[in-house]
TrEMBL record:
<dbReference type="InterPro" id="IPR004548">
    <property type="entry name" value="PrfC"/>
</dbReference>
<keyword id="KW-0963">Cytoplasm</keyword>
<comment type="function">
    <text>Increases the formation of ribosomal termination complexes and stimulates activities of RF-1 and RF-2. It binds guanine nucleotides and has strong preference for UGA stop codons. It may interact directly with the ribosome. The stimulation of RF-1 and RF-2 is significantly reduced by GTP and GDP, but not by GMP.</text>
</comment>
<dbReference type="GO" id="GO:0005525">
    <property type="term" value="F:GTP binding"/>
</dbReference>
<feature type="binding site">
    <location>
        <begin position="86"/>
        <end position="90"/>
    </location>
    <ligand>
        <name>GTP</name>
    </ligand>
</feature>
<dbReference type="InterPro" id="IPR032090">
    <property type="entry name" value="RF3_C"/>
</dbReference>
<protein>
    <recommendedName>
        <fullName>Peptide chain release factor 3</fullName>
    </recommendedName>
</protein>
<dbReference type="GO" id="GO:0016149">
    <property type="term" value="F:translation release factor activity, codon specific"/>
</dbReference>
<dbReference type="Pfam" id="PF00009">
    <property type="entry name" value="GTP_EFTU"/>
</dbReference>
<dbReference type="GO" id="GO:0005829">
    <property type="term" value="C:cytosol"/>
</dbReference>
<dbReference type="InterPro" id="IPR005225">
    <property type="entry name" value="Small_GTP-bd"/>
</dbReference>
<dbReference type="GO" id="GO:0016150">
    <property type="term" value="F:translation release factor activity, codon nonspecific"/>
</dbReference>
<keyword id="KW-0648">Protein biosynthesis</keyword>
<dbReference type="InterPro" id="IPR053905">
    <property type="entry name" value="EF-G-like_DII"/>
</dbReference>
<dbReference type="InterPro" id="IPR009000">
    <property type="entry name" value="Transl_B-barrel_sf"/>
</dbReference>
<comment type="similarity">
    <text>Belongs to the TRAFAC class translation factor GTPase superfamily. Classic translation factor GTPase family. PrfC subfamily.</text>
</comment>
<dbReference type="GO" id="GO:0006449">
    <property type="term" value="P:regulation of translational termination"/>
</dbReference>
Length: 527
């Protein structure tokens, strides 16, 4: 095996998906704690310790206690390099989350076992399905009264349309939570509460029929043995191929806050989850162990460090070896970029990258010349595909109080549009710019950034737009005709794509019926 292939084989790049409050942050913290990347629990979010985490980067975020931006953390575990991509769980930032999921090879789904499958989980899982991303499931909060475990599996299978293969099984719950039975290893891991417990403190008892279990907790173990009969009959045995194909999920049970069940997940990710995969780059498929470097940008984040006013482009390495100081070609601009100050995202700090391989994420500082979806290589013309834009559901027009600032406003909007903070539409007729978003909170972010970074005091006003569709038509004459007729409803987005802005659902339907050869798209890929 080449040294590049070896490096690729020991990498795992995954994201955590969950509905807000299911325990994603807590679990992230424990994963880092577990791997030794952080010394004590409580450094990811500042809630308890007063420290601010790597992912806390904006004032709004601090005020609201939510995580607006996804962050990337790299750590080592069992001689593997793990890249954990955090995804904002807040529903207003789902667009960003979707894009992060294009850069992972597997996902960890966290479910609050008291609540079951929630709205955001469904949406995120649908995004994972687009690329058949393998998913590991963690049923969290067993130290509380939760729902019946079999019922939870049923719900996952029914609602998320994915087979469940329980790997562990909970023994009791809430006050009588005793631990989990590891079905594949035939051993019981005993639960003891405590936030800062050491990993190796977990006591293990071999064999589900071990009489010690009847001495320790006769009622719960009896119940568990009965449940296991049902589980064996009703659920699926673990099948690695089905997991890799995204049709089956191994399920683990535990309690993130008590650091219980976390090691089993990490092991599953290392033992079963795929190493970085090949990627479609339009011209051809790119394999991760190729000699030459390539990658694409899936996210842009501003002001991560208030001392630096630059923006960081998050680039997923897709092949080859990245070395500090190397020249990489920005393919859209056909220009070399010297990669001297590229950063990596170690769990505790921003550090200079010396080298990186497929699956790793590197941060490229820039002043606005990198957009989401941009591809980089050592020169070969590649264009990685699959980074989605979703049609916005909320619309506002923008006005400014001081007309002398129009230029700054336009510049700010263009840059924020390129970053994907908000979608910006310029009507073909009419002067007011239109902003499209998936969630209301995006407007607050944009407003505060326009003020702080561009010195523009902008006012957003409601407008009568119900939905947006990107339009295309193979017949260019017909498209021109369409443009002329519907000019009042048409705009161009930040990447100059023609977009139809419909005032209501009926109008959109009518337009679709009247122009059967014009295609209306609810998503578009970065081009
Ligand atoms: P996120 O919104 O998904 O990042 O969720 P957090 O990690 O912030 O957790 C949401 C709440 O659930 C917090 O109050 C956590 O302390 C709590 N929580 C997380 N894991 C557990 C658990 O295993 N048991 C219990 N009882 N609470 C938990």
């Amino acid at each position: 095996m080449s040294s590049i292939a070896q490096e690729v084989a020991r990498r795992r790049t995954f994201g955590i998906i969950s509905h807000p409050d299911a325990g994603k942050t807590t679990l992230t913290e424990k994963l880092l704690y577990f791997s030794g990347a952080i010394q004590m629990a409580g450094t990811v979010k500042g809630k308890k310790t007063g420290k601010f985490a790597t992912s806390d980067w904006m004032e709004i975020e601090k005020q609201r206690g939510i995580s607006v931006a996804s962050s990337v953390m790299q750590f080592d575990y069992r001689e593997h390099v793990i890249n954990l991509l955090d995804t904002p769980g807040h529903k207003d930032f789902s667009e960003d989350t979707y894009r992060v999921l294009t850069a992972v090879d597997s996902a960890l789904m966290v479910i609050d076992a008291a609540k079951g499958v929630e709205e955001q989980t469904i949406k995120l899982l649908n995004v994972c399905r687009l690329r058949a991303t393998p998913i590991v499931t963690f049923m969290n909060k067993y130290d509380r009264e939760v729902r019946d475990s079999l019922e939870l599996l049923d719900e996952v299978e029914d609602v998320l349309k994915i087979q469940c293969a329980p790997i562990t099984w909970p023994i009791g719950m809430g006050k009588t939570f005793r631990g989990v039975y590891h079905i594949l290893n035939d051993e019981i891991l005993l639960f003891s509460p405590g936030e800062d417990k050491n990993v190796d403190d977990v006591e293990v008892i071999k064999g589900i029929d071990n009489p010690r279990l009847d001495e320790l907790f006769p009622l719960e173990i009896e119940q568990t043995r009965m449940e296991l009969e049902l589980v064996r009959g009703a659920s699926h045995p673990f099948d690695l191929q089905a997991f890799l194909a995204g049709t089956q999920t191994p399920v683990f049970f535990g309690s993130a806050i008590n650091n219980f069940g976390v090691r089993e997940i990490l092991n599953a990710l290392i033992d079963w989850a795929p190493a970085p995969q090949h990627r479609d780059a339009t011209a051809r498929d790119v394999k991760p162990d190729e000699e030459k470097f390539s990658g694409f940008v899936f996210k842009i984040q501003a002001n991560m460090d208030p001392k630096h006013r630059d923006r960081i482009a998050f680039l997923r390495v897709c092949s080859g070896k990245f070395e500090r100081g190397m020249k990489m070609k920005h393919l859209r601009l056909d220009r070399d970029v010297a990669a001297n100050s590229v950063v990596t995202f170690m769990a505790s700090s921003r550090e200079q990258v010396e080298e990186a391989y497929a699956g790793d994420i590197i941060g490229v500082p820039n002043h606005g010349n990198i957009q989401i979806g941009d591809s980089f290589s050592e020169g070969e013309k590649l264009a990685f595909t699959g980074i989605p834009y979703f049609a916005p559901e909320l619309f506002r027009t923008v006005r400014i109080k001081n007309p002398l600032k129009v230029k700054q406003l336009l510049k700010g909007l263009q840059q924020l549009g390129e970053e994907g903070a908000v979608q910006v539409f310029k009507p073909l007729s009419g002067a007011d710019m239109i902003l499209g978003a998936v969630g209301v909170l995006q407007y607050e972010v944009v407003k505060s950034r326009l003020e702080n970074e561009y010195g523009v005091d902008a006012v957003f006003e409601n407008c009568v737009i119900h939905s947006a569709r990107w339009v295309s038509c193979e017949d260019s004459r017909m498209l021109a005709d369409f443009e002329k007729n519907l000019i009042l409803n048409l705009a161009r987005d930040a990447a100059d794509n023609l977009t139809y802005l419909a005032p209501n659902r009926v109008n959109l339907q009518l337009a679709e019926e009247r122009w059967p050869k014009v295609r209306f798209h609810a998503t578009r890929e970065h081009s």
